[in-house]
Specification:
The protein is an alpha/beta fold and about 220 residues long. Helices cover about 45% and strands about 15% of the residues. Helix 4 crosses helix 7.
Length: about 220
């Protein structure tokens, strides 16, 4: 009797263990399957949303490159010189159009400007060589503070001071006075001295900022057409 009872107990224990083992194995299989599914899902989500977009060239960069290439092959554009009106020391109006068909050089200066003052003897030497040439015009211009010239932002002192400085330096070439800031604005003068070179057809050949030497000025004027 005791043996039969013991056998039953052992049988029940083994059956119960088998059930728990089977359930545990099923749970483990389910967990592994879930883990694999989660891993695949994570792998998919980590993929780039669009492989095409990452390999596509930047259109703006491409266009910029094309534009740069195109512009480099274009010829340099010419700019028509502004037909300025200025006043000379005698109060007469002088216009660029008065010298139509001639090569024109204009020195933009100020009586307080050190580099301007230092280069003026060099400019005078060139003027003496060119003053008798009929096809070349040599001028200078300043921005006086006198009310009569109506400059809203005058860059120099009064007319008398300017002419006194020119005389002191032995300058004999024409000194003109800007009116209503028109010359400085239209020729975008941002520093002194500035040198403007105009071809005989009225186009700007070159504009140079900073002091020049006698030889450098002669060379630039010789390039005018």
């Amino acid at each position: 009797m005791k043996k039969k009872t013991l056998k039953k107990i052992i049988g029940i224990f083994l059956s119960t263990s088998l059930i728990f083992t089977t359930v545990g194995a099923a749970n483990l299989d389910f967990a592994e399957a879930k883990s694999r599914s989660s891993s695949r899902s994570s792998s998919r989500s980590s993929k780039p949303s669009s492989s095409k977009s990452s390999s596509k060239p930047n259109s703006s960069s491409s266009k910029s490159s094309d534009s740069s290439s195109s512009s480099s092959t274009e010829e340099k554009k010419t700019t028509q010189a502004f037909d300025f009106s200025a006043i000379d020391k005698d109060g007469k109006t002088v216009k660029l159009s008065d010298y139509k068909g001639k090569k024109v050089y204009i020195n933009v200066w100020a009586s307080w400007c050190g580099p301007c003052i230092r280069e003026m003897p060099e400019l005078e030497k060139v003027y003496q060589k060119l003053k008798d040439k009929e096809d070349v015009v040599f001028l200078s211009i300043t921005s006086p503070s006198d009310d009569e010239f109506k400059n809203q932002s005058p860059q120099d002192k009064d007319k008398a001071t300017i002419l006194a400085k020119a005389k002191e330096l032995g300058v004999t070439y024409p000194v003109l006075f800007d009116v209503n800031d028109r010359f400085l604005i239209n020729y975008t003068v941002r520093s002194f001295p500035t040198h403007v070179f105009i071809n005989s057809d009225g186009t700007i050949a070159n504009k140079v900022s900073g002091a020049v030497t006698e030889s450098a000025l002669e060379e630039e004027i010789s390039k005018l057409k």
